[in-house]
Structures are given as structure tokens and as C-alpha cells.
Design goal:
The longest helix is centred in the N-terminal third of the chain and has 22 residues. Strand 9, helix 5 and strand 10 form a beta-alpha-beta unit. This protein has seven helices and twelve strands. It is globular and about 55 Å long. It has two domains: 99 residues, Beta Barrel (Elongation Factor Tu (Ef-tu), domain 3), CATH 2.40.30; 172 residues, Nucleotide-binding domain of ferredoxin-NADP reductase (FNR) module (Rossmann fold), CATH 3.40.50.80. The protein is 32% helix and 26% strand.
Length: 302
């Protein structure tokens, strides 16, 4: 038995030592941005840190807890000179981080007063393969929208600097959330991308649909009254917010009809139930002919 146990235990100990060494490297918080609805953005720098789109890191703040590590998806692009995470204040640890960063104070905080942060990672996810396809479907549900902030930023940087060599030609983005107010920072990102795409006369590069799955009678009345306005009253985007849940069968058939003979990447960050639905649709809408359309499903559950 010991021959079978020693090898895996040795590899495990090596992995723990590497993670401990990485977590001891100095991390500098360069900027703290307070977003609406108690969401903060931490922009950080670390020597030798290299990332890909959609990856995540583990974060420890000794000022809050010396033992707790928490995973956060990176919301910055690899092309940026910093890496960032968005933290929504929903518990004791995040509340402690919020206070440690001085976000509960009105006055400006000096950089040397910011807490020390330990970072382990980054770690890979399925979202890294997004640039392997010409056409992709990105589906984010609730907080699962965060990996696609990194993806969309990186796509934009690549598009601006070398659009001819960018394999990715079309993005269908779906955002399902109960309440957009919790993720207003992401709506701001979409607004920026929308305006920049229009300036370059390529508004069709990114097609997005925002679905509010939790809404009441007051919101419905507000929607009816302002439906004819140029921009959506909830997100400020030209694309109007939709209510309820997508009809995935229709969405897949429509996209398959627009891109015959293509390999279409389907990327999800969301709950297991939605993953099962998209996996079944990917299989049922892929053709048996190798030259036909094929949907390749990639998931990241939480």
C-alpha cells in the first residue's frame, strides 16, 4: 500500500509548497474602486503575474482572517498592466475586507493604509478557449457574469490592435440575472463596448441579450411605459432588457441557421441546472455530418 500512497502524497506536498511560496509573494493594491450596491473593485499588481481570460485566484487578507482563502474571478484583461477582482459585500469576510480597505470612510485613503493581500493563482477555466472559435455563445447567470468581463475586455483590446488576426468574428452574449442593480459595473462595461463598436462601425460584432428573471408588476409597468425610448431605462443600453428566461431551443436554432458549417463554442458560468439545459441543446442542435454545424459546450459551475 505504501508504494501507492507515497507518490501521490509527495506530489501533494510539492503542490502545497508551491502554493505557499506563491502566496508569500508581495501584492500591491494600486486602486480601490467603490461601485454601487456595495461592490468594490480591487486593482492589484504582483511581480511575474501572468493571466489568461476567465481565470480565477484565491485571495487572503490577514487583516480580516489569517486562515481564510476565498476564490474570485479575475475581471481584468491580460492586456492590462494590472489584475482586478470585483467583490460584492455579502458576508462577514467581504464586510471585513470592505472596512479594511477604508471603503466605509468618506475621506481619501492613503495607499500605505491599505491592507496586505496574499494571492494564489491564477487557475485555469474553460473560458480560456474562447479564442479558439470563430463564433461563440457566452452565457452568464448572476455572479457568473464576472469571467466574461475579462473575456469581453480582452476581445476588445485584440480587436483594436490586430483585428485581422483575430479568429473570433462573432459573439452572442446572454446575461441572466434577477436584478441588474447588483452588477451595474458590468452594465457600464457593456455600455462602453457598445459605444466603441459603433464608433468603429462594427456594432454587429457583439450581440447581447439581458434577461431579468426576477421582476415584479411595477417593473413590468415601467417597461411598458418606456419601451419606445431609444435606450433601455434599466441598463442604459440600446439593446432592451428582456423579461423571463430565454427560449434556448429557438436561440440555438437561430444561431445554427446563421452560421452553417461552423464550430460554435458555448461557454457557461452558472448553475448546474442551466448547464444541463445548454448541454442538451448543444447536442440536439449539432449535425451528424462533420461538415455541418457543431456546438461545443464548455461549463464552469458554482
Amino acid at each position: 500500500t505504501w508504494k501507492w500512497v507515497v507518490g501521490p502524497m509527495f506530489l501533494y506536498l510539492c503542490e502545497r509548497l508551491v502554493r505557499f511560496w506563491r502566496s508569500q509573494q508581495k501584492v500591491v493594491i494600486t486602486k480601490v474602486v467603490i461601485h454601487p450596491f456595495k461592490t468594490i473593485e480591487l486593482q492589484m499588481m504582483k511581480k511575474g503575474f501572468k493571466m489568461e481570460v476567465g481565470q480565477y485566484i484565491f485571495v487572503k487578507c490577514p487583516a480580516v482572517s489569517r486562515l481564510e482563502w476565498h476564490p474570485f474571478t479575475l475581471t481584468s484583461a491580460p492586456e492590462e498592466d494590472y489584475f482586478s477582482i470585483h467583490v460584492r459585500i455579502v458576508g462577514d469576510w467581504t464586510e471585513g475586507l470592505f472596512n479594511a480597505c477604508g471603503c466605509d470612510k468618506q475621506e481619501f485613503q492613503e495607499a500605505w493604509k491599505l491592507p496586505k493581500i496574499a494571492v494564489d493563482g491564477p487557475f485555469g477555466t474553460a473560458s480560456e478557449d474562447v479564442f479558439s472559435y470563430e463564433t461563440v455563445m457566452l452565457v452568464g447567470a448572476g455572479i457568473g457574469v464576472t469571467p466574461f468581463a475579462s473575456v469581453l475586455k480582452s476581445v476588445w483590446y485584440k480587436y483594436c490592435h490586430d483585428a485581422t488576426n483575430l479568429k473570433l468574428k462573432k459573439i452572442y452574449f446572454y446575461w441572466l440575472c434577477r436584478d441588474t442593480h447588483a452588477f451595474e459595473w458590468f452594465a457600464d462595461l457593456l455600455q462602453s463596448l457598445e459605444a466603441q463598436m459603433q464608433e468603429r462601425n462594427n456594432a454587429d460584432f457583439l450581440s447581447y441579450n439581458i434577461y431579468l428573471t426576477g421582476w415584479d408588476e411595477t417593473q413590468a409597468t415601467h417597461f411598458v411605459v418606456h419601451h419606445e425610448e431609444e435606450k433601455d431605462v434599466i441598463t442604459g443600453l440600446k439593446q432592451k432588457t428582456l423579461y423571463g428566461r430565454p427560449n434556448w431551443e429557438n436561440e440555438f436554432k437561430t444561431i445554427a441557421g446563421k452560421h452553417p458549417g461552423s464550430r460554435i463554442g458555448v461557454f457557461l458560468c452558472g448553475p448546474e441546472g442551466l448547464a444541463d439545459t445548454l448541454n442538451k441543446q448543444s447536442i440536439s442542435n449539432s449535425e451528424a455530418d462533420p461538415r455541418g454545424v457543431h456546438f461545443i459546450f464548455n461549463k464552469e459551475n458554482f
